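Appendix B. Extra example for self-study. Work through it before the problem class; the solution is given directly after the inputs so you can check yourself.
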Amino acid sequence: MEKIDNLDRQILEIISQNARIPFKDVAAECGVSRAAIHQRVQRLIDLGVIVGSGYHVNPKSLGYRTCTYVGIKLEKGSMYKAVVAELQNIPEIVECHFTTGPYTMLTKVYACDNEHLMDLLNNRMQEIPGVVATETLISLEQSIKKEIPIRADK
Amino acid sequence: MEKIDNLDRQILEIISQNARIPFKDVAAECGVSRAAIHQRVQRLIDLGVIVGSGYHVNPKSLGYRTCTYVGIKLEKGSMYKAVVAELQNIPEIVECHFTTGPYTMLTKVYACDNEHLMDLLNNRMQEIPGVVATETLISLEQSIKKEIPIRADK
DNA sequence: TTTGAAATCAGTAGCAT
DNA sequence: ATGCTACTGATTTCAAA
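Solution. Structure tokens for the complete assembly:
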């Protein structure tokens, strides 16, 4: 997109895996000065390539023992925006996509247990006007969880 | 799980959204000293509540214009581990879950364009022994992308 | 893009609650 | 057991080249 070179990619590769690494270490690994890293990172933020940072929290530690994907079918696709507005109010929904395929939309939902999940499905999601059906895909085991790959060439 | 109190939650709430915020600011917001934050964060790391950190990169900036979920049906559920091992080698696959519902497993895949996606599906994923069918749910728009909610009580 | 100085911040230890 | 103060060294920021 906007002239991202190999140094940028190398920096992204490192800091996307560890947000707290001192920039001088990044600099050493990349073979440039510390200031170069600062300037590049700032530029990547300004360009919108970097959209934030955060510590990763283990869901189980917070009592979220159930991770599920919920496919939602809508009466009409055009109701999508209104439904999303409602879904925004449910904190347990961490992702929502408008999708091709068997569902109108696909959401990712964390719940504490089956009872909590049941409550979210029956009393929250299925109550939203326009939602005609939901299908629940419970994740019994998450086997892969990576960051997006930083491509070597562009 | 292991005695996470409200101060812990307040800290997690802040640093899960911003890994680079100075701990002195976290301390100010929580109304405790910096050292307390250090101790708490270190403890949360030791307990496995915090599992890492990272900068968030905008997929589009790296040329990934297509985000998809791919449901995979296996000949036998018991082949799951072997299939996961193969999927590990495909960098574009960033998530993989063993699921209840219509598929044996659900994966999240980033691709540059439809041609790239086609290649991943036909030449990589469907070639894996045990995979009998795939169904592709292309995300036309991602409307919600949050961190996991930090529960107020627990 | 680099360097170096000034300002800010992190991490530690010992004390107090 | 947890938080606080104070200290030391590391890191970030910002100048000029």
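Self-check: The helical segments of chain B are 6-15, 23-30, 34-47, 80-87, 114-125. If your reasoning did not lead you there, revisit section 3.
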